[in-house]
Design goal:
With 376 residues, the chain is of the alpha/beta class. It is built from 16 helices and eleven strands.
């Protein structure tokens, strides 16, 4: 067997908490087409014509070591000024809309849709679940992407471990959260049914990890907070969500896979609870919203290990609004205050259009420096 590329080996060693010289680079989802093309060495307009190759060439040129969410077409949703001409949806301005013949225009219509449409679908999905087919689907999907990004980048898990979600995506903020407050017993039934299905899905995922020897890192992703804190009262989550969340993840908690949590907004109240469940790290800190990076990096897992941290320069503050020296300082701060092992560097989330090229340049230089030299 030929030796692994140095970037892949660096990513694997970091996941496995081995001593490493450098700090691996996590994917950069740059969304401004001109930046993508410039980094990739492509001509103007080439990203739209040949988006997957150009996007992947960008990741390779950056020196990315690890990709979990492979989304080469994601920047196609953006223009040079961000979302341009996008249709209004449930969370982007639509007030009333129709789902499965039911007009969603009140909390009661949300409950009606859940009880008439969603609950029967979940029960049927549980009854018809095919574990062998799902195991094969997970392994085939991960292998397919790994083949595309090889040999310089490692693919880790995203998108196939499930748990109960707070489903404002489907129903919109106002109607869903009013329903959540008014009908907690129905919401808990929703979480319970989602967990029933998730237990089956995650049992299959645990098998896939074991049978295919997939890299033991997985990023869980659910935006559950804004700048003020969790989107619903944390005590209600303790009562009707967390028990089903824990039950859903149980098959994976019995494996050696490092599950980390994607953070949007201010999740400080959630952090200790997630660690108590068995989550082993975090990604995507909005420092300006109150996420205390230094405090979090000093915390330990349930098994008393250092946390796995994917630290990123702020994509909402420093990269678009700061100066090159601010970018340089923030990278240094992330490194100096991050864990001794298990640290990755990148952006705090997707890098939207509008970031000055000078700031991008410093970010790429910093990632390269720490990838080659580490903390020393």
């Amino acid at each position: 067997m030929s030796p692994l590329h140095e970037n892949v080996q660096l990513a694997l060693d970091t996941i496995n908490r081995k001593p490493v010289k450098g700090i691996p680079t996590w994917l950069l989802n740059v969304m401004e087409h001109s930046h993508i093309e410039r980094i990739a060495g492509a001509s103007p307009g080439e990203y739209i014509k040949n988006y997957e190759n150009v996007y992947l060439n960008m990741q390779r040129a950056i020196g990315v070591c690890l990709i979990d969410q492979y989304i080469p077409d994601n920047p196609l949703s953006m223009g040079s000024r961000g979302y341009e001409g996008a249709q209004h949806g449930s969370t982007t301005g639509a007030s009333d809309f129709i789902l499965d013949g039911i007009q969603i225009n009140s909390p009661e219509s949300v409950i009606e849709h859940l009880e008439k449409i969603v609950f029967p679908r979940l029960r049927l999905a549980v009854k018809s679940f095919d574990e062998d087919a799902v195991v094969k689907q997970i392994i085939d999907g991960e292998n397919m992407i790994q083949e595309k990004i090889a040999p310089t980048i490692l693919k880790t898990g995203y998108g196939f471990i499930t748990f109960p979600i707070i489903d404002y995506y489907t129903y919109g903020y106002v109607h869903y959260f009013c329903a959540y407050a008014l009908y907690p017993e129905v919401m808990e039934q929703f979480f319970s049914l989602q967990a029933d299905l998730a237990v089956l899905q995650n049992t299959a995922a645990a098998r896939a990890y074991k049978e295919a020897k997939l890299p033991p890192l997985y990023r869980l992703d659910h935006d559950i907070a804004d700048s003020r804190g969790t989107l619903v009262d944390i005590k209600s989550l303790d009562k009707i969500w967390f028990p089903h969340f824990v039950r859903a993840l149980e098959p994976m908690l019995n494996t050696d896979v490092n599950m980390i949590w994607h953070c949007d907004g201010n999740l400080m109240e959630m952090v200790p609870r997630l660690l108590d469940v068995g989550i082993k790290g975090f990604q995507g800190f909005q420092y300006e919203d109150g996420m205390d990076y230094e405090k979090i990096c000093k915390m330990r897992t349930k098994d008393n290990e250092e946390l796995m941290i994917i630290a990123g320069v702020s994509v909402t503050r420093t990269l678009p609004l700061g100066k090159p020296n601010d970018v340089k300082k923030e990278i240094k701060w992330l490194v100096e205050n991050g864990p001794k092992t298990g640290l990755f560097l990148g952006g705090s989330s997707s890098i939207a259009p509008g970031v000055p090229w000078e700031n991008m340049e410093v970010l790429l230089e910093g990632l390269k420096y720490y990838r080659e030299h580490g903390k020393n």
